[in-house]
Specification:
single chain, 171 residues, alpha+beta, Glutaredoxin, two-stranded antiparallel sheet, 45% helix, globular
Length: 171
């Protein structure tokens, strides 16, 4: 029975385009050293568009959903890593860190400073540490999350909201 269920799941994955999933913690997020100012330098050297921060908290079911259904997809991981350095910040975390200006803070204080009180929230920052756009909540699917990335990479999110961009792309 287990082999049948595994085979059925594999076929479903092939049909839906989710054939290659990888652990989001290993393959989507970068290891952070707690110094976002130096991460900006790294992003510039690597030719990235900017930095993406996923604000999360322990036991958040919506964070869990994003990590396991969207951020675990190799297509998403490959696209986002091509264009961004990507980090997790725990909105209740007490780990010391430095913000984009080099100021000493904690994950929790950094989250409050950026007005993040619920999770998940995806903030995209440019190479100067300025917020480009924010995506609160979960994406509907892989395609929507990839479209969000393209909005930032193409520069459209610098001048228009993601919802407007998404509607234009649907036409």
């Amino acid at each position: 029975m287990r082999k049948f269920a595994a085979g059925l799941l594999f076929m479903l994955c092939l049909e839906t385009g989710f054939a290659e999933t990888r652990d989001a913690h290993k393959f989507f997020f970068d290891y952070k050293f707690g110094d976002f100012k130096s991460e900006l330098v790294t992003a510039k050297k690597e030719g990235k568009t900017g930095i993406l921060i996923m604000f999360e908290q322990e036991d958040c079911p919506f964070c869990f959903r994003m990590k396991n259904t969207i951020l675990s997809q190799s297509e998403v991981q490959d696209y986002y890593h091509q264009h961004f350095l990507i980090f997790l910040v725990d909105i209740r975390g007490s780990l010391p860190m430095q913000d984009f200006t080099g100021k000493e803070t904690t994950e929790k204080a950094f989250s409050v400073e950026h007005r993040v009180y619920g999770t998940p929230v995806f903030d995209f920052f440019d190479l100067d540490g300025k917020l480009i756009t924010r995506f609160p909540g979960t994406a509907k699917n892989v395609n929507e999350f990839l479209l969000l990335g393209r909005c930032v990479v193409e520069g459209a999110c610098n001048t228009t909201s993601f919802n407007v961009y998404k509607k234009r792309q649907a036409k």
